[in-house]
């Protein structure tokens, strides 16, 4: 397997590592979208959200929250947590990760671009999702 995040975890690839726990590691991405942008990843390799065991998902999200709280306490006004699972969602590295993009009121970033999709099927889609959740079915 040729995973750049696993290489960082193993110390084979250089990275600016900002935080590390037993199950997670946080480091600066190659291309930052905001001041202080970083990634939180599980040390074990899981390709996307659908593969991550619940305890590891919990460890990653808890660490992301802890880091976000520290960022807010040190001058940032908020954060965006960003994630993509799967090619259709534009996942660029096949290793589960969360982006933490620290934000300031005056940073003028738009990490929520306007959508151009047709909303005509929203009601039907939401009803399908609601029913699947209530029945415990796969979508």
From TrEMBL:
Coiled-coil ranges (or none): none
Domain HIT: 4-110
PANTHER family membership: ADENOSINE 5'-MONOPHOSPHORAMIDASE HNT1, HIT FAMILY PROTEIN 1
Record-level GO BP terms: nucleotide metabolic process
Source organism of the structure: Natrinema salaciae
Gene3D superfamilies registered for this protein in UniProt: HIT-like
Gene Ontology MF terms: catalytic activity
Intervals of motif Histidine triad motif: 95-99
Residues of the active site: 97
Protein name: Histidine triad (HIT) family protein
């Amino acid at each position: 397997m040729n995973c750049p995040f696993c290489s960082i975890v193993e110390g084979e690839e250089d990275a600016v590592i900002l935080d590390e726990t037993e199950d997670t590691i946080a480091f600066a991405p190659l291309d930052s979208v905001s001041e202080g942008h970083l990634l939180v990843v599980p040390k074990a390799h899981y390709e996307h959200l659908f593969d991550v065991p619940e305890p590891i998902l919990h460890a990653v999200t808890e660490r992301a929250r802890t880091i976000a709280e520290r960022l807010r306490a040190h001058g940032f006004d908020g954060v965006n947590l960003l994630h993509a699972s799967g090619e259709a969602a534009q996942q660029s590295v096949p290793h589960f990760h969360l982006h933490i993009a620290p934000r300031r009121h005056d940073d003028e970033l738009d990490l929520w671009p306007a959508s151009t999709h047709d909303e005509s099927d929203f009601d039907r889609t939401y009803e399908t999702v609601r029913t699947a959740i209530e029945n415990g079915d796969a979508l």
